[in-house]
User: Fold this.
Amino acid sequence: MTTHAPAATALYDIPGPVTRKRHRVYGIVSTVLILALVGWIIYLLLATEQFTSAKWTPFEYKGIQELLLRGLGNTLKAFAYAAVLSLTLGAVLAVGRLSEHRAVRWLATLGVEFFRAMPVLVMIFFIFVALKVQPLPALVAGLTLYNGSVLAEVFRTGINSVDRGQREAAYALGLRKTQVMTFVLAPQAVRAMLPAIISQLVVALKDTSLGYLITYEEFLHAGKLIASNLDYDLPFIPVVMVISPIYIGMCMLLSWFATWVAKRERRNPKTKAVEVAPAEPGTLLPGGQ
Assistant:
């Protein structure tokens, strides 16, 4: 049985026998260190009695399960509101920043820069305390103002990245600015902006956990109530081990959805280039003899 050496590329040279041996040693050492770190963490958890039945008993009760499910539902509700409103606000501010009217452009720029620079927690507290807004609207408003301003820059950059010739060709066909933006620039820009949009939505999803600071009963707030319960020996680590994978899973699900949308866009026949048959000998132009 013959083995084939790695193919040469323009980016790096083919590693020799000594280099490959050194890379194997690096891999083995890294694997041992990672396993040792995992083992040390498990040892600490066992030494501090984090796997005792007393700390995991709460999750068997129906009331605790309902509390977690209700908190998860409130988290998803706040995220849904914040995501839709952030995308809408981002689109409006991006159009304002791209406006030909100087006053509109300056106002949009001022709003974007102000809300991007303001910490999201400060905005949530200000809306909740100073304006005396209920927890859910205060949380959604703070997330919308911050993430909407960030998405505005994402939208503006994506639209400006479209080839200038596309815009000029659309104007040459007699389309108005609104039509050019809606039917020409935005559809092409969305495919380029999709990874950045999803990344910002993941940030919004994680920031919904700030709601527990203003007594909004979201997922983290429910976990905090369980973790601080003396009757179950303060099961802080078990609560973290239950809640963290769910947060990570929701973020991964959102990323998977973005990947699925991107693949579907690539398969969409409306987004594919139209193939033009090559000219053949004897082909006559209209009106030709």
Notes: Residues 62-97 form the longest helix (36 residues). The chain is about 70% helix and 0% strand. The CA atoms of residues 129 and 164 lie 47 Å apart.
